[in-house]
Write a structure and sequence with these properties.
Two copies of one chain form a homodimer. With 446 residues, chain A is an alpha/beta fold. In chain A, helix 2 packs across helix 3.
């Protein structure tokens, strides 16, 4: 299976998030994306990529290039690559017209292009945009339709520059394959993937029962987690093509999905559980949650809610990022009482009752300052736990004794207080994010 | 030019950030990435992708698969695809050994694999990791080295499964092409790209003088900005291949880079300025900064610093995210005094002196509440401007009168106060991020 992404913007700096999303969703039904390829919005290049894809892969998913403007050329390229003409579909045209009517917009004439369908293709409804998708089953769809041209006698769109015989060749090779044309914008592509593509693929290629487990890691360097769990992933995925992994690692956080298919649901579950145990054992304390117990701020929140504990945070170098992450969780008002960004020393003194003498003696970036901040915000908000973070996020402000990356994180309850010093690497943004992760990591353990 | 990304993790959920970065850096020297392709860590698939790439493109950049473990197979695949044997390089081996010695680690035997170089290739120093890169100029490099095998008589690594004659074929076609093998981890790839790849490519393909401009947009839907500037991008990039654009759009923010090459520096600058003016005119108020005047929080910060104004923020639904963005800017302590996350109503009353009666009458999500928060935090912090944000981020908590996505943002100075109501769409995270962007957008205009 290959995903062909069409869009010049993807080769000019725009981040491609399709591959990550689509590959994870495919894995959820036991299918692996074998290759991905991105091409410009240019007819010959799209057509060449599709021909190559149809020669080498059973399933060809294409995203992008279905819009109404002149640089949306996927339909035409698919017609060239398959040798199937495009036909104007009146019902489809009326649907597109109706969409504009409902939105009370005049339909630009260019949108009529979206009503053209590959001969034999089924159109896929797009509930979030105007461009319908297309599903072409190259085995079961009729090769000749009454009134259409005799395709075996030659391609209808043969243009100069294509190697002779290419379409006929492609035709024979394409037999028994699937070509799906899908829209480019995520808000159109993702729902169509769920409602039309995954169910169809599951029907054709799906077999047996399935089970899945999702594991989440934090707290040691990403590469260290990767090193620890990689041998298991390789051993298992090489031992059986019924076991699939997807991994998403970003800034010290790693998410691992395990998908297993087996003859019975019980066997699939057992295998998923066996692998999950092995991975968790290998990762040690870095593992913080499974399945829906994530992200980290939700794990922290669930823990606080369970214990009927409350939380208030005072931040200096992270400047509100910890409060922001904690309140990213729906329902966080159950345990999150208050946050305070005391950037200036005067704010630390006024808002958190940090003694001025303490700041003078030890400096704002110090263990005593972090502890005083944690205790101050806890008292003020009347919370079970207070958190204080202070550090040097950089790029300026570092000294030999207190270098950029030094961060103190303190936790204080009525009867206990702890403080840890960290030395984070990376730029200002990375140091701040790592400090927030470290604070959340401490909070999940209290 | 094609970028081949090697790594199963990229087809199993991990986000590929290489394509975005490499394409933007290529554009900075006037080159366009024509295609991108991602393959698994499997020898036949990498070799096939490289053969196809060498047949179709002048420059083939490959990232990933240069590590020491069994699934790092790019070297071997490149040897298959080019028909060039891999030779063990003693000097390279000693360099790798020295790296481990400096880090006081024992070198695992597997790392010896990283000392193998394609015949005729130049090795590229890796200052951030152990895997050296390789640069193979298929025109100028010697086809036969004394003592090496006669390559024309047959490939040295011929394995079953490859079409007969493929290597010899590839050989003739490869003439005059460049194959560069680069490491996968960004912290190794990016520096090597800057120090070794871009200068070499510039020397071979670069011509004339160059100029660049970077434009940044916010405040109207991403698609609306895209619609407005797209015709200009298409017109200009079709009119001349000496004009390159890269675009990076994410969550309502759009960054556009314009690169122009011309016979003289003055002409390049003039063209860049002409296009920049046209784009700014088309985008209207959505344009907020050029070149280094970005991101948005820096534009806001610069404005406050210039005016010697200070700032304090009180956040409810955004939960610290605005403070976090503002303090993301180095030196933000010059104007950012204090932030306050008043999630609970009691905190709004206690910390911001919002009258309890006001919250009872209008609710916490209301225009009067946002204004009272802005005024309260301004007074408390003695700041020039105070910001108050309150809204329904969802997913719960929405009513018919106050639906999910309704957010009030207020700005208050000693003599002025404004409040705007917004109706944001998307999930909780998107609503929060859009609210923060809207607040920053208001702040850049005060």
């Amino acid at each position: 299976m290959i995903l062909v992404c069409v869009g010049s913007e993807l080769l000019r700096g725009k981040l491609n998030t399709h591959v990550s999303h689509v590959s994870r969703r495919l894995a959820s039904i036991g299918l692996e994306m074998n290759e991905e390829c991105t091409v410009h919005d240019r007819l010959p290049e799209i057509a060449a990529a599709l021909r190559r894809a149809l020669e080498n892969f059973q399933v060809v998913l294409v995203s992008g290039g279905l819009g109404p403007t002149f640089d949306d050329l996927t339909r035409e390229a698919a017609s060239e690559a398959t040798g199937r003409p495009l036909s104007f579909s009146k019902p489809l045209f009326r649907e597109i017209q109706a969409k504009f009517r409902r939105a009370r917009h005049r339909m630009p004439p260019a949108n009529a292009r979206q009503a053209y369908v590959l001969d034999g293709a089924e159109s896929l409804a797009n509930h979030a945009g105007t461009a319908p998708g297309q599903w072409l089953d190259l085995q079961s769809s009729p090769r000749r339709k009454p009134g259409s041209r005799d395709l075996d006698s030659g391609p209808p769109h043969n243009k100069a520059g294509r190697p002779p015989g290419c379409v006929e060749d492609g035709f024979r090779r394409n037999d028994g394959k699937v070509l799906a044309l899908l829209p480019g914008p995520p808000r159109e592509l993702y729902p169509m993937l769920e409602s039309a593509v995954l169910p169809r693929l599951k029907k054709i290629y799906g077999a047996g029962a399935r089970a899945e487990t999702h594991l989440h890691f934090v707290g040691v360097p990403e590469s260290a987690i990767d090193d620890k769990i990689r041998p298991i992933i390789h051993r298992e995925s090489h031992a059986s093509n019924r076991i699939q992994f997807t991994i998403l690692a970003h800034l010290g956080l790693v998410d691992l999905d395990i998908f297993v298919s087996a003859a019975t649901a019980a066997r699939a579950r057992a295998a998923a559980e066996r692998i999950s145990r092995a991975v968790r054992r290998a990762a040690g304390k870095a593992w913080y949650g499974s399945d829906d117990a994530f992200p980290l701020e939700k794990v922290v929140g669930d823990r606080f809610r369970r214990r009927r504990a409350t939380l208030a945070v005072a931040e200096s170098c992270t400047g509100g990022m910890l409060a922001s992450r904690l309140t990213d969780v729906p329902g966080s008002s159950d345990y999150f009482l208050e946050g305070c960004v005391t950037y200036a020393n005067t704010a630390k003194v006024r808002e958190l009752s940090v003694p001025e003498s303490l700041l003078k003696e030890h400096g704002a970036v110090s263990r005593p300052a972090a502890l005083a901040m944690a205790k101050g915000i806890r008292r003020r908000a009347q919370a079970t736990w207070g958190v204080g973070i202070t550090g040097v996020a950089g790029p300026g402000g570092g000294t030999a004794k207190k270098p950029v990356g030094l961060v103190y994180i303190a936790l204080a309850s009525k009867i206990r207080a702890v403080c840890r010093a960290y030395h984070f690497t990376g730029d200002r943004g990375a140091i701040r994010r790592r400090a927030v992760l470290a604070a959340l990591d401490l909070l999940r353990r209290v």
